[in-house]
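Re: your question from the hallway

Yes, I did run it. Sequences:
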Amino acid sequence: MAELTAGPARRRPLVVRYPSVLIFLTCLGLFTLGATILSEGFGIGVISTSFVKTLGKTLCLCLVALGMDLVWGYCGILSLGHMAFFGLGGYAIGMWLMYERTRLIVVDSLAAGGLPATPEEISSGIAAQIFGVVGASEFPPVWAVAHSLPLQLAAVVLAPGLLALVFGWLAFRSRVTGVYLSILTQAMTLALSLYLFQNDSGLRGNNGLSGLQNLPGLENTSQAIVSIWFLWGSALALGLGYVLAAWMVSGKFGSVLRGIRDDEARVRFLGYPVEAFKLFVFTVSAVLAGIAGAIYYPQAGIINPAELAPIASIYLAVWVAIGGRGRLYGAVIGAAFVSLLSSWFTGGQAPDLNILEYRIQWVDWWTVLLGLSFVAVTLFAPKGIGGLFDLLAARRNPNRHGQDLGPDHGSLREKEADA
Amino acid sequence: MSKLRWYFVCITTVLLSVFTLPVMAQNADAPIQQLLQNHREIIAKSSRKTIAPAIDALAASGLAQAQTVLTRWQAKEMWRNKETGLFVYGEKAGKELAAFDFADGADLGTFLARDFKQLKPNSGIRGMIGAALVQFQLSGSFTDKMQALDAIERDAEASHLAALTKVLADETDAAVRQRMERLQGLLTIRFGETEEDRIVAIQSFEGDLGVDVRAALNPLLVVTVEAATAPPEGEDIARILTVGSEDLPREAAYDHLVAAGLATPRISRDDKRNALLANISDGSVAGVEVATLDSEAARDLAYAALADQGLVDRVATDSEVDATLAGFTFYERYTGSPAVAVAAAAVLSGIENKVAINQAFDLGLDALSLASIYFLAAIGLAITFGVMRVINMAHGEFIMMGAYTGYVVQQIITDYTLSIIVALPLAFVVTFGAGVAMERLVIRHLYHRPLETLLATFGISIALQQIAKNIFGTQARPLTSPGWLDGSLVFNDIVSISYIRIAIFVMALMFLALFLFVMNRTRLGLEVRAVTQNPRMAASMGINPDKINMLTFGFGSGIAGIAGVAIGLYAKVTSEMGADYIVQSFMTVVVGGVGSIWGTLLGATVVGSLQKAIEWLNPSNTLAAQTYMILFIILFIQFRPRGIIALKGRAAEA
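Structure:
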């Protein structure tokens, strides 16, 4: 109550109210610095370039998990299509990377021909190089602005943002909620990935865009250096995204979001435009996902429609759930922990396990373990890894003597809160 | 020694006597031999241009032996005695020839092959002989007739028409006669003597759906593109083309004019570049600095300058191309007879309309069978999601488990019919057990947290999928249907449906009936409905909601298992097959309306027909079909958020 009457003018700074933001930023900074010192490019070379790239990619995944946590953990929208936005961001930046790099190659080869190249020659040369693999030789309309970095960077934000805006507007205005919305978002990413799989989608079908790790004009810079730049870029994006998300969920706006999560109808009756709130959060989180994708794919080097398959988005939900939703650091921890663990297990580095006569090879059995541990987390530790911090801080949910914590079935019940 | 010599003498004598023996036994006066002798010059000359009278005479002779002559002649087994000029047939073995008389097939004995000349008709003549032979075959036994008709269908010739017409009048077997008449009609279309005959034949096939009719008619509509400065007139003009349309792109139109010598050629970008490169001197081309040639316009100017100097050929620029094209009208002219073509076009369009109607009907059948597959996949979901409001993402994996159960049963019981009969209940039992276990262990704890249920069941889904992959491998496993389900029910050349799809359709109907019976007519159904509407009230009435939930969930899962066997028969069994159906299944339930079995039925029909319809509009691309279908469903939910059949009142809030 005191906070409400005090008014915004006397509000204390964000970092003071939420010390976790400061702690997180410090940890992130130390981690990035540490990785740089240990790297091959700038430091003593303890960790390999490919591992630096893995770390950078992990930070991007943390960013998209952050976006997921905003919509799911705070607003109660379980989106099973967030990797569609991630992929769109990747495609947007990938188009420019591929265009520009091919253009440099084409211009070089034409310059050796004796006559200065004409724009038409360059354009058809690039198109033949890029689309030869799908049997086309002309630029599809979707590549209209691929030559311009600023416009493609705008597309990184606009493409996922607009898709989320249109989809969200259609879904929220017809009051699609709960599991229906989840299924619908899953259908959206399935539709998008099926569309991109076609050869005449204009984005090279199932070949996807490749060679993205080679930045145009930086052929002479080694990947060891570039990987560190991207690590810092990823860390910066994650840090800024974290502050933005923390700011969004901190004030009255955040309270309304949580209200929508716990009882949408009640918030609507209080006079809040619930649809607008949901649409705004959904779009912001899609943009975060798009930006994360745009930093992720130059490190991964290749993007293809399989990255947009529904399963990817569901894994995203798994990360957030395991990390602990409804708290920003939970999403980040979950994404980092599970994705790193996953690449450790599936990379064949984990030692085999012998149970009786059967030899468990983790490459085959990791998914089983992940699936079952996910069930276990859902059942026994709904707060996920983030719940450990509650234990440390000795935080408890209020005791409501067996009543629901929220008025809706979707909210936590007292029994769980005590557990 | 002397004995051996005696043998030798004897053998030599016998051999000599045989080889030097004149052709005593051959009847030189037999009518067939006479006939051959009458045409001996042209037969011996063996030229395609002149041979016709001999073959015609043989075919028209009415002699019983004529067929033998033609057959042997075609097979290069006719020989002519160099001395007497008489014709025989025989087979050569080494240097010897075993000869037979054409007249009565009498064995004439063995001769030295060098005394005879083999007649070797070339392929053209053999074809003519073959055509003549058809007439004999057509009046032969039933098998001969059928073979002959098959041969004509495969490779028709003008001569077949006369042969067919000749035998048709005497044919008594109705089926054969019908086939002959049809073939005669088709041959008349192609080879008829007068245009009137052909047009009558064409019109006799009005509305015929046979592929052969369309194959006969289409070549009559072949057109050539022509260009003229004045608008063309005449009935042989098929249509006027617009330059730049899909049928006649601008480049193609201009190339046509160039080929006809009506316009100056254009030059490709690469050729222009090469021409300029070839004429660089002192860093410039025809006085233009090389460095300034960085646009196509500059290159055009330089090229024109080169052309003025006579170093390269003049070419048309883009504006000249446009001007030239504007001066011409392009049209298609029928290459064949225009009257026939017009008649064929009219009949063909009638046929195509009928084909379209039949295709629509066939598409309807396809859609129905797809709908029944979706219904089968979704009906279990309709129970767990629709009745219990529990979202089960592992539903697809239950379908997969059912299919793999069927596969394992087939490994043990090799009789396909028996194995299916065993597999269906076994699949139900296996998935019922899995469903009950899942409900007891996981879902029971999450009844009031639908999003968590979704995620937990999803975790189970990926675990089950991976376990199946580890056990059965990634390759697709076959689930073979019994022999009596092979083949299709064929209505006509266009409409057909395979028996397996009919079986799936019947199965879907049976499940609908079973579901309705269980829900509306049994104690279990009553209790399920009671628990669904109000668990507390049901509990106070003495119903154990825990037990009912468990059984309902098991029932839904069990049906998924049976659906898995059915789907496995129709598609391949893989560990990912469940994931392929899960989204469609949810769409089916959501579109139809949650909580209503009729809604699920309608939803399956809508989703199935829609997918088929979109595939029909864009047949090359099933991926696009799925994309558009999902988009449609997202839009559909805008207008009917609760599906086609929406529950109203209190039930909707349950």
